[in-house]
Specification:
Helix content: 25-40%
Order of helices and strands: HEHHEEHEHEEEHEEHH
Radius of gyration: 19 Å
Protein name: Transcriptional regulator, AbiEi antitoxin, Type IV TA system
Largest sheet: 6 strands, mixed
Mean pLDDT: 93
Number of strands: 9
Shape: elongated
Distance between the termini: 67 Å
Number of domains: 2
Low-confidence stretches: none
Strand content: 15-25%
InterPro entries: AbiEi (IPR059220)
Strand order of the largest sheet: 6-7-5-4-9-8
Oligomer: single chain
Structural class: alpha+beta
């Protein structure tokens, strides 16, 4: 007797998922059920999301819940996954907050400079991703970025994050200039 599609999806995800790989696009999972029509596949993903085995994090990205990822890293990993084809780096308020230059930052909000288009993406209870377009090339940023393995993203050093804040005309009122000047 053939296995139900939903069960096959869960079995496949259980084999594919790891603590480092728990975010999947519909295309990633499609290979587990190639015989389903497009409409049947979409309905199956909807059922899986209602079942809480998969959480629809945002359009085009699902979180496989049995892996139990670190909730504090989900936004970072989602940003890296959603814009894998673009130059992206943590900057602006997020980088400055992590460096202690800004004391206040909205909870669950990640600001990322991206060679892709500007866009804000709600990721349910995990927060919001804000991508801000930059025309700068990777070669221009050499020596100003550090790779953060936990986040799986590049992170701007405070000097670059401050320059990005000015370049994008962000509000500079929350910056502690005493600390900022020490880091620059």
């Amino acid at each position: 007797m053939p296995t139900q599609p939903l069960r096959r999806l869960y079995q496949g995800l259980q084999q594919l998922a790891t603590p480092q790989r728990y975010l999947f696009t519909p295309a990633d999972m499609r290979g587990l059920l190639p015989e389903l029509s497009s409409s049947a596949y979409r309905a199956l993903l909807s059922r899986a999301a209602n079942d809480n085995q998969l959480i629809r994090l945002c359009r085009g990205l699902y979180l496989y819940t049995p892996v139990k990822p670190n909730p504090g890293l989900v936004l970072y990993h989602a940003a890296a996954r959603l814009r894998a084809d673009n130059l992206n780096y943590i900057s602006l308020e997020s980088a400055l907050s992590d460096a202690g230059v800004i004391s206040q930052l909205p909870m669950n909000w990640l600001t990322v400079m991206s060679s892709g288009r500007s866009q804000s993406i709600r990721c349910g209870s995990f927060g919001t991703l804000e991508f801000i377009h930059t025309t700068r090339k990777a070669s221009e940023l050499a020596g100003q970025l550090d790779y953060d393995e936990r986040c799986r993203m590049w992170r701007a050093r405070p000097t670059l994050a401050l320059a990005d804040m000015k370049r994008t005309r962000r509000n500079l009122d929350l910056i502690n200039w005493e600390i900022a000047n020490e880091l620059v």
